[in-house]
Specification:
eight-stranded parallel β-sheet; 45% helix
């Protein structure tokens, strides 16, 4: 049985003061939900403050990105060793990083290897754009991303990853994929590609989330699908009812 994981990606939102106030308001409710992994991913500036607030809880903490290099002349970047002091997870390859900052599968692959070398658990994002979806290229695009991002990893490393399937056309649009549609991509394309590379046991071990307009009102439908192991939540993770979303997900995925 794969343990479900619900992660809130705050993106570029919340000052340190706002982040600490928000975490204090949801901390007890989130910590009371024990049957799923819960992860908060605030901006870099709030990581240290949120870390202190989560210290006595079972809630995980993640960063939204990192560089693959150990150190050096990379102005504005964050090295894996810097994150290791603060958090356990790191989101890598988010579609916004790909679209707005030119990230590639090769670069994401280097980041995954660097994260694993430092004991960080990557949440690896894959997903097709609306034009690719409309052209019937979902399987080709997503399978290619999986192959590129996981190149050179061992089966054991892949089995321990979290993959997030985020169709770009569903992120922040209110137009979520259907549970059946998302589940098919996750089960047939993502797990199918991993099975072809590393074997069926590895494909069945890796946890795969769905992300894209996930809300308290629809999360149960996604969690009821046997191939969906949680959600990477954007806008809805910035609201107090994120606790309700996680609680509903935990009940539906039980």
């Amino acid at each position: 049985m794969r343990r479900p994981i619900l992660a809130g990606n705050w993106k570029m939102n919340m000052t340190i003061a706002e982040a600490t106030d928000f975490v204090r308001s949801i901390r007890r409710g989130l910590n009371d939900i024990k049957t799923v992994d819960r992860v908060l991913c605030p901006p870099f500036t709030a990581l240290a403050a949120v870390k202190d607030l989560l210290a006595a809880t079972g809630i995980g903490l993640g960063a939204q990105n990192m560089h693959w290099e150990e150190d050096g002349a990379y102005t504005g970047e964050i090295a894996p060793a810097m994150l290791k002091e603060l958090c356990q997870y790191v989101i890598l390859g988010h579609s916004e990083r790909r679209a707005l900052f030119g990230e590639t599968d090769e670069g994401v692959n280097r980041k995954i290897k660097a994260a694993l070398a430092h004991g960080l658990l990557p949440i690896v994002c894959v997903g097709e754009t609306e034009s690719e979806y409309d052209a019937g290229l979902t399987e080709q695009v997503v399978s290619g991303q999986v192959r590129g991002c996981l190149a050179g990893l061992t089966a054991g490393q892949v089995a321990g990853l979290v993959v997030a399937y985020e169709p770009v056309w569903a992120i922040g649009t209110g137009k979520a994929a259907t549970p059946a549609g998302a589940g098919a991509v996750i089960g047939l394309t993502i797990r199918g590609t991993i099975a072809g590379l590393y074997g069926e046991a590895t494909a069945q071990a890796v946890r795969v989330q769905y992300g894209g307009s996930v809300k308290p009102s629809n999360v149960a439908e996604f969690m009821a699908h046997p191939d969906i192991d949680g959600a990477l939540v954007g806008g809805a993770s910035l609201k107090p009812d994120f606790v309700d979303l996680v609680r509903i997900a935990a009940t539906a995925g039980a």
